[in-house]
Amino acid sequence: MITEDLVQEISESLYSAALRRVPPDTIQALETAREDEAQESARATLDLMVRSARLAEARDTFVCSDSGVPTYFVEIGGAAQWQGDLKAAITRGFDHLVETISPPLLKHVNNPLTNERGGPGKDMPAITVDLLGNADYIDITCVPKALGSGRWASLRTLISPSLEDIEACVLDAIIEAGSQHCPPVVVGVGIGGNFDLTAKLANRATYREIGSLNPNPTLAAMEERLTEAANATGFGPMGVGGSTTALAVHIDYAFGHGYTPVAVCFNCWINRRAKARLHSDGRVERLL
What we know:
Strand order of the largest sheet: 4-1-5-10-11
Radius of gyration: 19 Å
Structural class: alpha+beta
């Protein structure tokens, strides 16, 4: 049985882990980008990123002082055996983390009505729930969202667009963000569905492993074109110039109505994410 206590423990540990470790696929992508870079300042910046990531993991400290806000994606299998209030358990995990984590978290949770900053708050952590068919487990993914990656997300609604229209919309968002989201970034794109679904698709697309191939040939080709276009902007790592503005562009889509929402979001160069699978027999499998 998956208990509230287990969900609280794992959600808390995922947030802490995501702050301290750059995922292996991202380290590899940064190292590959460094080899491909022609501009010396960009190569030096990518070197610094990789060294910072390795030092943070070795010293068990944060990769970046901007710990962002806790964002969880919870996928529940139809055959999973669980009990209790999962949302309350995740919230308790965050509250406990705020009180006990070392180094302490800066006050990044913001009240939009008063601009008062703190830790816990209304609907924080941000939790999105989806269903996993007949699986007998629950997957929890934590993706801390900081100012750089969160501020420049966008959503526009197009009417019966062509593929070229969609690509232009995505590229506009990339150009508007410039280097302010701490590149090189992973770009997540959602196409279609409705307002909330397309945003979820875009966010979930950023979780995909860098280097993985989109199973849809049309989207795979679009990802390749947009990654090339993003890197042709010349912003480069942390805005120093160069050909590494995006590590990847990942796209997902859904059927919708005559209008087509297009959502674009970003994960900064740290590409923070941590994932665990909670099995019905109480086993916990770390997936990322």
